[in-house]
Design goal:
With 329 residues, the chain is an alpha/beta fold. The chain folds into 2 domains: 237 residues, P-loop containing nucleotide triphosphate hydrolases (Rossmann fold, 3-Layer(aba) Sandwich); 61 residues, Alpha-Beta Plaits. The strands form 3 sheets. A 6-stranded mixed beta sheet has the order 7-8-9-4-10-11, with helices on both faces. The longest helix has 16 residues. The radius of gyration is 24 Å and the shape is globular.
Length: 329
């Protein structure tokens, strides 16, 4: 472990961990679906779990919930070992894994009512259960839905229904697998706002997704898994650290290029990417102003999550970028 990794782990441990794994491994025959993973999810985080198809994301999530047993290693969720004491923590967890489950011939309300009545925190008061169902339907944007059977729902509606089911017990921890799958941009923003609101009220969010832009917009921490191994775990702000380059916006880019010369690494219209280490003045912005070149904007260039993930997963994995800006699943 590098000094940077050690510092990050030390920082993480200053906060109470709601999910922690140690050397977690799951083998199917000779193939390791999850390979020696140490995962750390702090209380109050919005943790994005990224990885290409076949990288072990879903297997990892299923082990956290006690649905799949590990070949080796340890899991603690909300301070209790899993699967040994998983029954004690399930009432405090809301989960949606591999898409929402429902009886297709019943309505969404009826499905939620059955789920609430049989859940770990079931309430004997039927009216309170009905009120709770209406509350979560409203929260996910399905409050006006009629009693059509679920088989007539769109994929986006099914995703909303699955999220409603995960919220029934007011969980301390949400474990979600692709919760925005099938939603239009407006729906994606609604779900994102809801998760941020729940997180602000104290719910920790663990979100598995292939949408890099969504992770960047929502999450505070990120873990990247590739070929079963955790190749990155850090705060998102640290992952998207500075590149050492400047973004310079000017209405006269031609003059700026003449002044800065080799220091201009890239140009996109009126925006220049300036790298002073490749030659040119050590203070390029001041150099431009002193020579009469007007500036409209100056910012530090930061790494994108996409660039980091592509570099870490490498060309040998199924991690090519899709047109939507995500990872192939």
């Amino acid at each position: 472990m590098s000094a940077g990794d050690a510092a990050q782990r030390s920082s993480t441990r200053q906060h109470r961990l709601v999910i922690e794994t140690r050397r977690l491994t799951k083998r199917y025959g000779t193939r390791a679906a999850v390979d020696d993973v140490d995962l750390h999810v702090a209380e109050g985080a919005r943790y994005g779990f990224l990885g290409p198809n076949g990288s072990g994301k879903t297997t990892m999530v299923r082990m956290l919930l006690g649905l799949v047993y590990a070949t080796r290693g340890e899991i603690e969720v909300l301070g209790r070992p899993v699967p040994a004491r998983v029954a004690e923590v399930l009432p405090e967890i809301g989960a949606m894994v591999e898409g929402p489950a429902a009886y297709p011939h019943l309505s969404g309300r009826t499905n939620l009512g059955l789920l609430d009545a049989s859940g770990p925190r079931r309430d004997r008061d039927g009216r309170r259960r009905r009120d709770r169902v209406e509350e979560v339907l409203d929260r996910v944007g399905l409050g006006a839905v009629d009693r059509r059977p679920v088989r007539t729902y769109s994929l986006g509606m099914r995703q909303r229904l699955g999220l409603a089911g995960a919220l029934l017990d007011r969980p301390r921890l949400l474990i979600l697998d692709e919760p925005t799958n099938g939603l239009d941009p407006h729906g994606i923003r609604e779900v994102r706002d809801l998760l941020i609101e729940l997180n602000a009220a104290g719910t920790t969010v663990f979100l598995s997704s292939h949408l890099l832009a969504e992770i960047e917009a929502l999450c505070t921490d990120v873990g990247v898994v590739d070929r079963g191994r955790l190749v990155l775990e850090d705060a998102l702000d640290a992952v998207r650290g500075p590149t050492g380059r400047l973004l310079v916006r000017t209405p006269d880019p031609e003059a700026a290029v003449r002044v800065l010369g080799r220091a201009v690494a890239e140009r996109d219209g009126e925006t220049l990417v300036v790298d002073a280490t490749t030659g040119g003045p050590p203070a390029p912005a001041r150099h431009l102003v002193e020579r009469g070149v007007p500036l409209d904007g100056l910012a530090e260039q930061r790494r994108s999550l996409e660039d980091v993930v592509v570099a870490l997963t490498g060309p040998g994995s199924d991690s090519a970028r899709t047109p939507a800006g995500g990872l192939r699943r």
